Amino acid sequence: MKIALSSQGINLDSPIDPRFGRAAYFLFIDSQSENIEVVDNNLNVNAAHGAGIQTAQTVINKGASVVITGNVGPKAYGVLQKSGVDVITGATGTCRESFRHYKEGRLKSAQGPTSVPHSG
How many structural domains are present in the chain? Predict the structure, then answer.
């Protein structure tokens, strides 16, 4: 299974990015091998609009089954849910800590979006 974490940096010791659509990077971790692929989300960080939907599509295209982030808006949440991606929000601390908490079963799936859409 592949897990996507919104990240402010390029390694597991980077802080979780509290923004989904405008996260600086995504770390895609294979839950078995723990191999990591880093994806720069720069195109969506500065997008005038649609960042959440575009980022959700990237996560889906990379084959993630789970996304761990701070917050996610309603449009991105809808796209992820429709594609069967488990969305976990409220993550804080480092990516390493969040990944460990996920493996330990300490993180729960979101029941809906946690932020409002941005205008523009």
Answer: 1
